[in-house]
User: What shape does this take?
Amino acid sequence: MRLSIIVKGMPLFSYLKELPTFLKQYREIRRQAGQSQSVFPFGKPYPCLMDRDQESGVLAEHYFYQDLYVARKVFRNNPLRHVDIGSRIDGFVSHVASFREIEVLDVRDLPPTIPGVRFTRADLTARDFPLVDYCDSLSCLHALEHFGLGRYGDPVDFDGHLIGWENMTRMVKGGGKFYFSVPIGEQRIEFNAHRVFSLAYLLDLMKNRYAIDSFSCINDGQQFIADAVLDADSIRNNFGCRYGCGIFELTKR
Assistant: This one.
């Protein structure tokens, strides 16, 4: 028996560790096929060697919890117009589109037509961004940390996150909701992947602009902590996170 197998995106050690089990099972199913009355021909082998030892649900880091959590808040608040900036299409946006229309702005194209999603290509780091008092509900989940780093085709701008923040703040009507999340920890840029924000820095951005309705976080152990208390110690040490996720529900003053 000769197999031509190409495995991509898998560490060599893991590949070599799992390959004997794959070959043993492959030989067994071929043996069973020779004794079966069922007609089911074999195609080219397609080994999936990483799944056997994983848990039944593999949750994408940060995104699973935040996307579900914020989508439920949008459902409860039922705004007139909800707009999203750069959040995950196959997570948060699809959750919201399952129960209401959502308008999406992103610096990248979104070619397919998705039911319930209205898409506009837009650069939130543009200094002449035109939308003011545009919506009563806005989300930007795990996206602001990328603004101005060029990773997604946007212009490199060291202050891109500040420009984006001001543009989004102008978009929200007074009394409107802003759902916002970014990585939290010791403040730094890890170019060109992302920024990580300290809580003290974020709270200073929000000061006098927003009331904080709730704060939740996902810590470095991937534990979701709902309605966390923003006390002085937690702010100073960023809830013990090096690369956590802070999730804010805000109301514009």
